[in-house]
C-alpha cells in the first residue's frame, strides 16, 4: 500500500517535472481538460454554482427593473452610465458569490488530497479556470438578456458590448480563480472571497463600465478598442501571475 | 556595538523628525491664501511616499519568503504591511484635511485618492486573510501569494485611475519640474469633466485681445448650475479672469484658446501651486521625506524583530505542552 502510494507520488513528481518542460505541455493540457470535465460533471449534478450565479443576477435585474425600468427614462449619457454600472454590479456580485465554488467544493468534500495526487498543480488551475470562464459566459449572456428585456436597455453597438463583456469576464476569471484557491484553505470563505477580490478588480471594473456605457450609446467597435486592449493586458498579467503563484497556493 | 549604533540611530531619527516638525512652522514661509493649515503638506507628501515604499517592501519580502521559506522574511513582509497601513491612513487623513481647507472638498475621486483608497482596501484584505488562517505556515504562504498578486494589479490601477476624473487637484506642476497639468480641451458646445464638476463650453467671445469663455459649471448630482466667464489675453498669452468654482476655493482657468477650431483649454487652478519654487520649502520637504523613510525602516526592523520573538516564544510554549 505504502509502496503504491510512493510510486503514485513519484509519478506525480515526474509529471510535474515534465510539465515544466515543453514535452509535458500536451500532458498538462490533457490533465487540465480532465479536471475541467470532472468539475463540469459535478457542477451539472448539483448545479450549485450556476443556480447561485443566475438567481443572483436575475434578482438584481428584477430589482433594478422595478426601480429604473419605467418607460419615461430619458436616454442621456448619465442614464447609459448608470445602466452600465448596474449591469456590472449585478455581474460582479453574482461572480463573487459563485466563482469560489470550484475550490471550496473540493475542500468541503475533502477531495483536495485526491486531486493533488491525480493532477499536476498547473492542470488543476487551468481546469478550474476554464470552468469559471464557462460559468461567467453563461452568467453574462443571461444577465445582459435580462437587462435588455426588463430594464429596457437599448444596445447601440452589440459587437462592442459583446467584446466588452467577454474581455471583462475574462479579467474577472483570471483575477478571482487563484483567490478562490486561497480562500478555500481559510475560514469565513465566502465573505473573505469578496474582500480579497474587490480591490484587485477595481481597475478592470472601471474600464468595463465605461466601455459598456459607450457600447450602449452610439460608440462603435473602434471606440471600444482601447478598453479591450486594457482588459486583455490585465487578463494576461493576472493569468501569468496566477500560473507562477498557483504552485505555492496548492502546496500550502 | 550594533545595539549602541541602533540606539544612536533611533535618537537621530527622533531628533531629525523633531527638527522637521519645527522647520515646518518656522522655516517654511506661509503660502498666500492658505494660512497655517497649508503646512500639513510637509507631513502629507512624505507619508504618501512611505505608503508606496512600504507596499513595495512588503511584496519584495513576500517573494523572498516564497523563495527561501524563512519565517523571518514573512515577519518583515507583515511588519512592512502594518507600518504601510499606518502611513497610508496618515497620508489619507492629512490629504483630506488639506483638501477641505484649500479646495473645500474632503474627497473627489482624484486619481491619487482612488489609488490610495484601493491600497487601503488591499491592506485590509491582507489582514483579514491572515486572521482567517490558523496554521502559521499556511498563513505565511497564502498571504505572501496574495501580497504578490495584489502587487501585480497595482500598475493597472495607476493607469486607469485618471480615467475616473479628468482633472486632478494635486498640484503636479509644482512638484515635478517640467511636468504639465493637462486640463481639458473643449470645442464650443461640448461637455467635459473637471474634478467632479461637469463643465460645458457655451461660447467664446473675442473682445480686442481678450477672449472670454462662457462655461456652464454643474455641481455633482446636477443640483445647481452656474455660468462662469474665465478669460485669456491673446497677446500676452496669459489668463486674465480666473473665477472661483461656486462654493469651492479653486478657480477655473482658461489656459489656451484656438479660435479657428473654436475650442479652448480649461483647467483647474488651485491655490498653492508653485510651492516648491521656494528653496527653503524644498529642503524642508526633502528632510521630511528622508526622516519619514528612516522612521519606516526603523519601525520595520523593530516590528519584525518583535514578531520573531513572539514566534519563538509561541514555539517554546508549544514545545513544553
Can you give a write-up of this model?
The complex is a heterodimer of chains A (252) and B (321). Chain A has one domain (25-251). In chain A, 85% of the residues lie in helices and 0% in strands. Chain A contains ten helices and no strands. In chain A, helix 4 (77-98) crosses helix 7 (121-150) and helix 4 (77-98) packs antiparallel against helix 9 (189-216). The model of chain A is unreliable at 1-12 and 17-23 (pLDDT under 50). With 321 residues, chain B is α+β, with helices and mostly antiparallel strands. Chain B has two domains: 2-171 and 280-320, Four Helix Bundle (Hemerythrin (Met), subunit A), CATH 1.20.120; 183-269, no CATH class. Chain B is built from seven helices and nine strands, in the order H-H-H-H-H-H-E-E-E-E-E-E-E-E-E-H. Chain B has helices spanning 2-26, 41-68, 71-103, 111-132, 136-160, 172-175, 279-320; strands at residues 184-187, 191-194, 197-207, 210-218, 225-228, 231-233, 238-239, 251-258, 263-269. In chain B, strands 2, 3, 4, 5, 6 and 7 form a six-stranded antiparallel sheet that branches. In chain B, a hairpin with a 2-residue loop joins strand 2 and strand 3 (197-207). The model of chain B is unreliable at 171-180 (pLDDT under 50). Classes of the chains: A mainly alpha (252), B alpha+beta (321). The interface between A and B is medium-sized, with 34 and 32 residues.
Amino acid at each position: 500500500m505504502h509502496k503504491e502510494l510512493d510510486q503514485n507520488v513519484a509519478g506525480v513528481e515526474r509529471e510535474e517535472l515534465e510539465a515544466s518542460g515543453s514535452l509535458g505541455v500536451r500532458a498538462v493540457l490533457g490533465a487540465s481538460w480532465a479536471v475541467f470535465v470532472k468539475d463540469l460533471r459535478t457542477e451539472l449534478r448539483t448545479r450549485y454554482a450556476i443556480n447561485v450565479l443566475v438567481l443572483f443576477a436575475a434578482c438584481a435585474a428584477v430589482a433594478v427593473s422595478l426601480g429604473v425600468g419605467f418607460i419615461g427614462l430619458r436616454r442621456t449619457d448619465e442614464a447609459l452610465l448608470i445602466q452600465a454600472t448596474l449591469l456590472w454590479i449585478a455581474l460582479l456580485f453574482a461572480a463573487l458569490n459563485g466563482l469560489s465554488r470550484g475550490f471550496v467544493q473540493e475542500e468541503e468534500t475533502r477531495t483536495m488530497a485526491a486531486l493533488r495526487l491525480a493532477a499536476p498543480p498547473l492542470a488543476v488551475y487551468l481546469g478550474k479556470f476554464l470552468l469559471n470562464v464557462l460559468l461567467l459566459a453563461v452568467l453574462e449572456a443571461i444577465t445582459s438578456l435580462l437587462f435588455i428585456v426588463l430594464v429596457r436597455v437599448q444596445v447601440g453597438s452589440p459587437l462592442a458590448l459583446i467584446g466588452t463583456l467577454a474581455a471583462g469576464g475574462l479579467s474577472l476569471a483570471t483575477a478571482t480563480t487563484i483567490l478562490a484557491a486561497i480562500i478555500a484553505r481559510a475560514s469565513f470563505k465566502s465573505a473573505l472571497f469578496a474582500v480579497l477580490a474587490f480591490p484587485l478588480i477595481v481597475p478592470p471594473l472601471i474600464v468595463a463600465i465605461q466601455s459598456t456605457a459607450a457600447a450602449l450609446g452610439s460608440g462603435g467597435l473602434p471606440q471600444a478598442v482601447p478598453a479591450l486592449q486594457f482588459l486583455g493586458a490585465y487578463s494576461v498579467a493576472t493569468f501569468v501571475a496566477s500560473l507562477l503563484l498557483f504552485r505555492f497556493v496548492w502546496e500550502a | 556595538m550594533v545595539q549602541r549604533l541602533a540606539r544612536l540611530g533611533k535618537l537621530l531619527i527622533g531628533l531629525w523628525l523633531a527638527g522637521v516638525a519645527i522647520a515646518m512652522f518656522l522655516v517654511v514661509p506661509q503660502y498666500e491664501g492658505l494660512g497655517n493649515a497649508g503646512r500639513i503638506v510637509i507631513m502629507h507628501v512624505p507619508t504618501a511616499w512611505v505608503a508606496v515604499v512600504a507596499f513595495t517592501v512588503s511584496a519584495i519580502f513576500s517573494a523572498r519568503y516564497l523563495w527561501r521559506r524563512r519565517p523571518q522574511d514573512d515577519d518583515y513582509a507583515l511588519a512592512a504591511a502594518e507600518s504601510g497601513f499606518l502611513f497610508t491612513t496618515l497620508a489619507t487623513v492629512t490629504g483630506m484635511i488639506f483638501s477641505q481647507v484649500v479646495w473645500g472638498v474632503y474627497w473627489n475621486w482624484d486619481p491619487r485618492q482612488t489609488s490610495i483608497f484601493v491600497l487601503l482596501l488591499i491592506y485590509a484584505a491582507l489582514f483579514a486573510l491572515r486572521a482567517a488562517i490558523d496554521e502559521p505556515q499556511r498563513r505565511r504562504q497564502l498571504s505572501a501569494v496574495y501580497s504578490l498578486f495584489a502587487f501585480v494589479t497595482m500598475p493597472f490601477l495607476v493607469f486607469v485611475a485618471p480615467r475616473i476624473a479628468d482633472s486632478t487637484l494635486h498640484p503636479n506642476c509644482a512638484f515635478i519640474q517640467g511636468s504639465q497639468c493637462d486640463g481639458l480641451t473643449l470645442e464650443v458646445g461640448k461637455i467635459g469633466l473637471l474634478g467632479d464638476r461637469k463643465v460645458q463650453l457655451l461660447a467664446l467671445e473675442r473682445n480686442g485681445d481678450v477672449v472670454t469663455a462662457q462655461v456652464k459649471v454643474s455641481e455633482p448630482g446636477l443640483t445647481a448650475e452656474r455660468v462662469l466667464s474665465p478669460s485669456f489675453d491673446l497677446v500676452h498669452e496669459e489668463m486674465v479672469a480666473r473665477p472661483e468654482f461656486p462654493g469651492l476655493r479653486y478657480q477655473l482657468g482658461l489656459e489656451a484658446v484656438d479660435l479657428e477650431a473654436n475650442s479652448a483649454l480649461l483647467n483647474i487652478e488651485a491655490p498653492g501651486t508653485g510651492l516648491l519654487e521656494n528653496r527653503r520649502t524644498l529642503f524642508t520637504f526633502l528632510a521630511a521625506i528622508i526622516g519619514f523613510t528612516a522612521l519606516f525602516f526603523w519601525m520595520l526592523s523593530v516590528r519584525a524583530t518583535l514578531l520573531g520573538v513572539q514566534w519563538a516564544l509561541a514555539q517554546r510554549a508549544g514545545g513544553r505542552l
